Amino acid sequence: MYDFPDKVFLNGAILATSEAKVSVFDRGFLFGDGVYEVMTCYRGQIFCKETHFQRLYESLKKINLSFAMDGIHEPLDDLLQACDLDDKDCMIYLQITRGVAPRKHAFPKNTMPTLMMYALPFSGLEVNQTPMHVVQLPDYRWHRCDIKMTSLLGNVMSHANAKEQNAHEAILVRNGVVTEASHSNVFFVRDDLLYTHPANELILNGITRQVVIRLCKELKLKVREEAVGKAEALQMDEAFLTGTTTRIASIKQMDAHLFYQGDEAGTVTKALQEAFLNFQFDSSRVK
User: Fold this and answer.
1) What is the mean pLDDT of the segment spanning 183-198?
2) Angle 49-62/207-218 helices, nearest 10 degrees?
3) In angstroms, what CA-CA distances link 40 with 60, 94, 120, 193?
4) Cβ distance 158 to 172 under 8 Å?
5) Which of 109, 148, 222, 270 is flagged as catalytic?
6) Tens-digit pLDDT profile for residues 52-64
7) Whole-angstrom Cα distance, residue 249 to residue 131?
8) By CB atoms within 10 Å of each CB, which of 38, 129, 180, 277 scores lowest?
9) How far is CA 151 from CA 134, 186, 274, in A?
């Protein structure tokens, strides 16, 4: 298990992790005033790189943080090479904060953003075989979950609550309907029809979520971007989670309800897992 990288990229330099320092007055530290992306790289190619960077750009725009996106690509390549991960499977974390300024709620103009990136070995070229146990919890987060922000206390507390109940993940419920999970999106299946919350301000439009919807069209599976009620969720035939590192993971148990017995996920979930695996191997489709 890899916990910390040996090197990080921080504001123009690749440094040993022990030497990388950020000011205590960085707004990312004081306010969580920043955004981030997590990407995976398979066989030297970043999975859905253009889509990830487009979402990062949109998150920056939504919080009015001006940053030159073209200044990321070369440093990222240099970082992967310095970590000997440029031709290996890995996970990439990238974070941009508004930078250092006096602690005031109103952010000043023309601050220098803080850019930090690191990479760790990660193997994801296989079907996620973990049968997930999840619990439904209230969604207490703010109403701009579409921004991939570093302020994740609501997600962290929900996930911690789920772990205390020996569950893998928390399924979040707002106004009586399921939104998403603490760090993944959620799909439900009934009579071969898929349901997932619409991509509005109440969820993060996950990259893997987008790929799954695309694969459903290719497999002639119908998808409704429609919220599912808390009680209705327990009446579905199948359910699964999607995420960058989760990929597609079947939900076996939600609260006390079992979606299936044994280790065999539902047919729709398995079909999408196989299609996603093939998608990852197709270098012409994952840009």
Assistant:
1) 98
2) 130
3) 21, 11, 10, 29
4) yes
5) 148
6) 999 999 999 999 9
7) 7
8) 129
9) 23, 21, 34
Amino acid at 135: V
Q: Whole-angstrom Cα distance, residue 255 to residue 134?
A: 6
Whether pTM > 0.85 for this model: the answer is yes
Q: Is 172 helix (H, G, I), strand (E, B) or coil?
A: strand
What is the per-residue pLDDT across 225-282, written as a single tens digit (0 to 9) for each? Answer: 999 999 999 999 999 999 999 999 999 999 999 999 988 999 999 999 999 999 987 7
Percent of the chain with pLDDT over 90: 91
CA 178, 210, 43, 269 torsion-angle sign? positive
Amino acid at residue number 235? Q
How far apart are the C-alpha atoms of 71 and 78, rounded to whole Å?
Answer: 12
Query: In whole angstroms, what is the distance from residue 70 CA to residue 171 CA?
Result: 36
Cα distance between residue 172 and residue 183, in whole Å: 10
Q: What is the pLDDT of residue 1?
A: 45
Q: Is 191 left (phi over 0), alpha (psi -120 to 50) or beta?
A: left
Length of the chain, please? 287
Alpha-carbon span 42 to 80, nearest angstrom? 12
Structure tokens at 180: 């998403």
User: Taking residues 205-225, what's their average pLDDT?
Assistant: 97
Q: What per-residue confidence (pLDDT) applies to 125?
A: 84
Provide the terminal-to-terminal Cα distance of the chain, rounded to the nearest Å. Answer: 28
222 as an active site residue: the answer is no
Query: Cβ distance 225 to 187 under 8 Å?
Result: no
